[in-house]
Amino acid sequence: MRDFYGVTLDSPLMLGTAQYPSPAVMEAAFRASDAAVATVSLRREGGQGQAFGEIIRGLGVHILPNTAGCHSAREAITTARMARDLFETDWIKLEVIGHADTLQPDPFGLLEAAETLCAEGFSVFPYTTEDQVLAQRLVDAGCRVLMPWGSPIGSGLGLNNRYGLKTLRAAFPDVAMVVDAGLGLPSHAADAMEMGFDAVLLNTAVAQAGDPVVMARAFGLAVRAGALAASADPMAPREMAAPSTPLIGKAWL
Length: 253
Fold this sequence. Notes:
By secondary structure, the chain is α/β, with parallel strands linked by helices. The protein is built from 10 helices and 8 strands. It is globular, with a radius of gyration of 20 Å.
């Protein structure tokens, strides 16, 4: 597994902390998932108070603050600076939303914010699309991790553009990549890992499941299965059938 700004994670699962029925359910879901990273927004931390922050810190995982809800580079930069002071980490998941309906990242604002934050010493995890030109600009700005979306945030549609994700993964073999957003089922997460991605990040699929704890465990198992499958050098698809039983020794009548 590739490292994330010098940190090797124990699990390729990153899990969000929003929308759970209760903080207790969220905590239990994290325990069941064995996730290595918790993403949390500054706005949620401020709304929940000190008790919520203590729960997050008590999970014993890496904290990845995010700039969720920011719609401009300036807003995201300010939020990132505040998050660094509050959570005492240089890690930041950088979101600059450009479209209200799809929540697609604003590529121009994202790049502007990434350039500023990288220059200030942040370890930037940019929420981006599968666009290779934008990816190269982000890497040039100093980003050592890319987080392309699977599909729109909270949609549960899975991997909408498999070709785009595959070509992005192949184009940047030395860059750690996390499929972020739109995953609805554990099979989506396993699929992303089988494609060679280093981790997945999700929230809604677990938090809004009928049983978040069971779903969290399912995702935790799925990402490990997908990672193992990728490391096993899986067979390539074939256009024609290939018999598994040899013809040698067959009785010809």
